[in-house]
Every structure is written in structure tokens, then in C-alpha cells.
Design brief:
The chain is mainly beta. Helix content is 0%, strand content 31%.
């Protein structure tokens, strides 16, 4: 499944007109997880027991003309049977897990009830027997420019888990609209 992907971090952002209209937006970002001390990394593991160094992640965003957005996640090399929580966060990844900021929210709110899969991008999954996992989130809304920059993997589903890994992703709006 990961054949042909080099062991180092590989990331690609593709901005292209899709088949749905002149303002489609597509992003694909992938990398192998590295320890927090690695220079110029796009993906960090903060808990190698749950997200081993060298395990792999891919995140794709596709936003159609009009704002409907699909975010997909694929991973390999994780702990079989473990349930992970995954959310889009506001800031890029760094050696400090807190650097990614809070969850991206379509309608920003301090109300804890706003932390839900309709107002945020949740990609929770359980790793299969072979350590792979996948999830997809679909929304009728688009990201605000510059306000969604990473995907954080948490040690449990929902909103309370510790941050165990992070991938920087250049999420963006369709056609520059907010």
C-alpha cells in the first residue's frame, strides 16, 4: 500500500482546477513520522509507543466549487486495535505538541458543545490488525484562509485525548473564498 514512498518525509500540495468547477481546491500531504528533534519535519510523533517513528500518514482535502469539503486520512504502522482520535487543528506542527493550537471550528466558539463532528473535522479510527487505518469527514463548509494548518492524532477518540502525533497540512479554501 505504501510501495514507492521514500522513508523520509514527503509532502505535496496540489492546487488545481478539478472536474467540478473552476474553483475546486485539492491538497495532498503525506509524511513519515519523526521524533520531535528532527529538522524540517512535517510529521512528528510525540508518543512512539502509539505512533512509531517511521509510521506513515496521508491527508487529502478536496473542496468543490461552492465549499463542500471532504477530508480523508490514511495511516500505516500504528498499533493494531488501538482507537485514535484525529482532528484538524489551527496551527502547523512543531516539536511541542501544543504548537498546533486548538481544533479548527467552522463556527468558532468557546462553548464546549461546539466541539463536535459537525462543527469540526473529526477523523477518528481504529487501527486494523495490520496497523493501517482510514477515515473520511464530509462537510458543507470550507476552511477559512490560514486558520486550519494541521492534523493531530490523539490517544483516544473524542475531544479529551493527549496529542500523540501531528502532520502539517496546507488546508485551504476553494478559490480563495472564506
Amino acid at each position: 500500500m505504501v510501495a514507492g514512498i521514500c522513508a523520509g518525509a514527503v509532502a505535496a500540495a496540489v492546487l488545481a482546477a478539478g472536474t467540478g468547477g473552476a474553483h475546486d481546491y485539492t491538497v495532498r500531504s503525506e509524511a513519515r513520522f519523526t521524533a520531535p528533534g528532527a529538522a524540517h519535519a512535517r510529521a512528528y510523533t510525540y508518543d512512539p509507543g502509539l505512533v512509531p517513528v517511521g509510521s506513515w500518514i496521508e491527508v487529502r482535502q478536496h473542496t468543490a466549487d461552492g465549499g463542500a469539503t471532504v477530508v480523508g486520512l490514511r495511516v500505516t504502522g500504528l498499533v493494531p486495535g488501538h482507537e485514535y482520535g484525529v482532528h484538524v487543528h489551527q496551527k502547523p506542527c512543531a516539536a511541542d505538541p501544543a504548537a498546533a493550537g486548538g481544533h479548527y471550528q467552522h463556527m468558532p466558539s468557546a462553548d464546549p458543545a461546539a466541539a463536535n463532528p459537525d462543527n469540526e473535522v473529526w477523523l477518528d479510527f481504529t487501527a486494523r490488525r495490520d496497523g493501517t487505518g482510514a477515515a473520511v469527514a464530509r462537510h458543507r463548509w470550507d476552511f477559512r484562509p490560514g486558520q486550519a494548518s494541521s492534523v493531530v492524532i490523539h490517544d483516544m477518540p473524542g475531544t479529551k485525548g493527549a496529542r500523540v502525533a501531528c502532520l502539517t497540512v496546507p488546508f485551504g479554501p476553494s478559490g480563495g473564498r472564506s
